[in-house]
Amino acid sequence: MVKTWVGTIVVVYLAFVCYIVAAPQEKGQEPKKDEPKKEAPKEEPKKEEPKEDSLTQEEAAELFKKGMEHHQNKEYAEAIAIFKRISNKFPKENGGFTAAYNAACAYALKGEKAPALEWLETSINNGFDQFDHIEKDTDLDSLRDEPKYKELMNRKPM
């Protein structure tokens, strides 16, 4: 009984709001020029809850191989999507920070320096510590003169 009563109130309220918003103007009355037209209140789009990625370590290892194939075939957008997914799921684990490093390489090869440097920083922040490899990796050649690259290389342990 309460549900019916509440439902009735909601329906009446919505009908009233629609009537007010859509009410026609009285005859002979001009709209005021400085007064905006009344519009129905806009509902905010429902935000979807981010879905938990169910990727397992074993699946990530297989996916990593596919990412490397895309990388080798110069299909950088596909490789980046895979590497980012793995890195986001396992950021502090070897596969995750290595995937972040490979995303940086793919971005650099695409000529997108800003995301390349961001992903390189992410990989280092999450545990990628192969600075000798970073310095020799030709994938990152386009980044060598960037101040951010130099800053990241200064993190190399002495």
Question: Would you give the CATH topology of the domain at 57-153?
Answer: Serine Threonine Protein Phosphatase 5, Tetratricopeptide repeat
Q: What is the alpha-carbon Rg in Å?
A: 28 Å
The helix count comes to 7
Superfamily at the CATH H level of the domain at 57-153? Tetratricopeptide repeat domain
The largest sheet, given as strand count, sense and whether it forms a barrel, is: none
The percent range for strand residues is under 5%
Give the C-level CATH assignment of the domain at 57-153. Mainly Alpha
- The H/E string reads HHHHHHH
DSSP, total strands = 0
Q: Specify the helix fraction band.
A: 55-70%
How confident overall, as mean pLDDT?
Answer: 81
Provide the low-confidence segments as ranges: 5-23
| Overall geometric form | globular
